[in-house]
Write a structure and sequence with these properties.
The protein is 30% helix and 24% strand. Helix 1 crosses helix 2 and helix 3 packs across helix 4.
Length: 194
């Protein structure tokens, strides 16, 4: 990742909250006020969830972001916490930014005692590169079915974040995903909709 890009945990730099809430609301169909409330709750000491992250580029503009919340609008309330709202601006995609952000979040959550993270997505093949695995299909609050992935945090080496380590972690995760697909015969096809 370029040196002019910075990953920021909003609980550590509260001055970005207003801009971040506006940015996330623009990307997802969740009201800005809901992001503000969750970001305010992320400032409570000793609680790793919720947590919100942004990635800033040249000039301090937000170019990517993600959060960790209890539930990302699905029926499996027992599968918590959930990584949510991962988004990278189109012109910054395919540069490793999402991978670095995912790695940073995983390290922070492991340091906070979180042993497993979950996420829902309609992507397949993307998250596997970063050590996530397909777990099940869940029902979204709007009634649709969506894929749920998990990431076991006990496999995360807890240490200070280092971009060189993130590159190494990404390569190992890609290799592990390929080995898993070979071993299980997984085709990467989406499950049939019911």
């Amino acid at each position: 990742m370029k040196t002019d890009i910075e990953i920021i945990r909003l609980s550590e730099k509260r001055e970005y909250v207003e801009t971040a809430a506006e940015w996330f609301a623009d990307k997802w169909s969740v009201p800005e006020e809901e992001y503000r409330k969750s970001m305010a709750a992320s400032a409570e000491p000793g609680k790793p969830v919720p947590s919100w992250y942004i990635v800033t580029g040249e000039g301090g503009n937000i170019i990517a972001g993600a959060g960790v919340i209890e539930n990302d609008f699905h029926d499996r309330k027992d599968l918590t916490p959930n990584l949510c709202a991962l988004f990278v601006e189109e012109e910054y995609r395919c540069r490793g930014i999402a991978g670095e952000l995912l790695n940073k979040i995983c390290v922070d959550m492991a340091n906070g005692g979180i042993t497993r993270l979950y996420l829902i997505t309609d992507h397949d093949g993307f998250y596997e590169r970063y050590g996530w695995y397909f777990l099940t299909t869940v029902r979204e609050d709007d009634g649709g079915l969506i894929r749920m992935y998990a990431h076991d945090q006990q496999h995360v080496v807890i240490k200070d974040y280092d971009p060189a380590w993130a590159d190494e972690f990404e390569k190992k995760a890609e290799k592990a995903a390929l080995e898993w697909k070979k071993r299980t015969g997984e085709t990467g096809e989406k499950p049939a909709k019911m």
